[in-house]
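As the work plan foresaw, our protein records have gained a structure token line. A representative record is set out beneath this paragraph:
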Amino acid sequence: MLAAAGLASRREIERWIEAGRLLINGEVPTPGTKLGPGDRITLDGRPVRLKAKPEDKTSHLLLLHRSPGSALDLKDAAERAAEHLKTPRASRRWLAVNPMPPVDGGLEILTDDGSLAQRLSRGVHALTMDFVLRVRGPLSDSIVADLRAAQEIESEPMSILEATAQYGEGLNHWLNLTVRATRPAQVRHWLAARGIIVSRLIRVRFGPVHLGRELPRAHIREVTKSERNALMNEVDTARAALAAMRDGGAQPDGLTIDE
């Protein structure tokens, strides 16, 4: 309920509970505690009032092109979003869905709807994503083939669906990756163990949503209706596939999930 109201992400609220910062009727709750209309909620001693979300309020989904090395600043993103949507800055709280590490960059997805952020986050690890890497070191066809076949790093699952090298001059090369359930840090560690250093890593696709040339760095735009529908359909399909695998059922047609 708190996340859906846009107070913060579910993980952040859970951290507040663990730290004893969030109280309900003067007591520290447990995750899953039900809230009633007369319950008093406080954060760091200050009352929290949840405003009922209007029935006609439209949730927004935005794309942000973040430069590598610049941390995701949600306050700055809120200002950019307010300017883009022509809304008061204080009227919305923005959440990032599967944000990239500060050292990396590229496509970031933001929403002002906690329920939507939760729905996306639950299926994000089953989506495919594209990364573009600039690397320095002895990159070769055999190393690219080994990376494509890699299934884990330090006992962590890693799924590289496609790897294509664009060899440059000298030590700098570009590497295009299509991955699923694979963190950028895993790719960095795998390559570093072979003497290849990633100097830049950019996410250029998030499921069916692509980072196009129409979105320069530090700019923001709202997803189109077709992009939003495609993203939600893919997330829901991925979640259904994972649920079917956990229950021992068959995977939906057209979707392959690597363990």
